[in-house]
Amino acid sequence: MTETHIPVLLQEMLHTLAPQDGCTYIDATFGGGGYTDAILNTANCKVIAIDRDPDAQKRALPFENKYKDRFQFISGTFSDLDNLLPKDSLCDGIVFDFGMSSFQLDEADRGFSFRLNGPLDMRMSKDFGLTAADVVNTYSAEELAEIIWFYGDEKKSRIIARAIVEQRKIKPFETTIELAQLVRKFVKRHDGLDPATLTFQALRIFVNNELIEIDTVLKKTLSHLSAGGKVVAVSFHALEDRLIKNWIRSDHSALQHSGYTLKALFSKPICPSDEEVRKNPRSRSAKLRAVQLISTKTIWSGS
Ligand SMILES: C[S@@+](CC[C@H](N)C(=O)[O-])C[C@H]1O[C@@H](n2cnc3c(N)ncnc32)[C@H](O)[C@@H]1O
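Above: inputs. Below: predicted complex with S-adenosylmethionine.
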């Protein structure tokens, strides 16, 4: 079990958000609190942190003791942002660091890892939803192939799906290693990635409804931002990054009618340096994008 999670693109996130005294920020993916800690140490500001994982809630306890009323933890899924945040409250920035934490990946009992043997679970919150075992033991070969193809971009998705269905006739899947070993029989890779990587990624995204969560929350963020407020989002694979990119480029004309515009802070995403990737290989696919809500009234008046 890992004792820590190394925050990815931390300095880049901080530099972009540029926390200010007296402001309030939302860390919608608290994890181990790496982003929250850095924000609270940079300015005399407040952070409202959200995470769906009950283990993250436990990790937030020392933050409550340390930062007192500058820190608040809310347990829940970020797609429920409108109900989680105090009504009509506006904040000065929202940060997202999508995907899973090293705490989740490296804890065998959570069932995310193809390297550690554990129950085939993969739920970020064990309170509800199907486990990965439920999915592989009950979905049809066609449904499994589609999940593994769409969320994992795994070219052997049909072969893997058919093998899963054959194997479960003998014995239903219970553990991560059972699934990983089956996939490794049918997928060979020459790029250093474990052959089970994409199948596990696909099941994790599906089980946690991750893309719908992201799509939903992005559409809600702007109504919680004050003028000048920023959204800083870090993604880890192309499906996540595409949702962020499309949201930034989408039609925000309704905003303009109410006197605001959305400005992308960079034309291209920020990626980790070679040094960061060397120190923390899990950062290798990260991309940071950011936007700022600008009042057009401010622009016109020249102030
Ligand atoms: C990559 S980690 C964040 C790490 C954090 N930035 C840090 O520095 O420690 C992502 C976190 O987001 C949480 N998460 C993922 N999807 C979520 C959702 N839909 N709602 C709330 N939390 C979510 C996960 O449980 C996980 O703890």
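The CA atoms of residues 105 and 113 lie 6 Å apart.
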